[in-house]
Amino acid sequence: MSFKPVVILAEDLPVGLKANFAAVLGMSLGQLRPELVGAATPTQDGVPLSGITSVALPVLGAPAADLPELFLSAVDLPVRLAYMRSAFEARDYADYTARIAAAPLAGHAPQAILIGGPRKAVDRLCGRLPLLR
After folding, report:
1. Inter-residue contact 84 to 108 (CB < 8 Å)
2. In this predicted structure, what is the pLDDT of residue 25?
3. In this structure, what are the phi and psi dihedrals at residue 42, rounded to the nearest 5 degrees?
4. Helix (H) or strand (E) holding 98
5. pTM of the model
6. Distance CA 36, CA 5 (A)
7. 1 falls in which pLDDT band (50, 70, 90)?
8. How far apart are the C-alpha atoms of 107 and 28, rounded to whole Å?
């Protein structure tokens, strides 16, 4: 299986939040799928640089209103992550987990999602979305 991860951000977010949310989701992907992070590589003069992703990670844009349905549609994919509005509003991780636990999934608003799985399945869900600009 060819694994394809994709980040999808609400296109109306400010650029700084888009960058932050994509970074947060990338960290979560690295934890879930450590095999996607390549080995450290030394420079010619022996300075080791930590491994980076070994697969492409496209960052796409979508209307914020489309993110809940995209997230729900990806339920059968092996990787499905969301950066919910509660994460942005929370003061710390304990506050975030309390906010998430206080409402059903439908009560949360994803600001960004990361889905990953077989290339064809991921392309079916988000192949029409443009690269984030």
Report:
1. yes
2. 97
3. -80, 145
4. helix 93-101
5. 0.92
6. 10
7. low
8. 22
Radius of gyration of the chain (CA): 16
State in Å, rounded, how far the first CA of the chain is from the last one: 29
In sign, the C-alpha dihedral spanning 15, 29, 113, 55 is positive
Distance CA 37, CA 97 (A): 27
Contact indicator for 77, 8 with CB cutoff of 8 Å? no
User: Which tens digit of pLDDT belongs to each residue from 22-53?
Assistant: 999 999 999 999 999 999 999 999 999 999 99
Q: What are the backbone angles phi and psi of residue 79, rounded to the nearest 5°? A: -130, 125
Answer yes or no: are the C-beta atoms of 82 and 66 closer than 8 Å: no
- Rounded CA separation 121/5 (Å): 11
Cα dihedral 11/17/19/23 (nearest 10): -110
3-state helix, strand, coil in the chain (%, to 5): 40, 25, 30
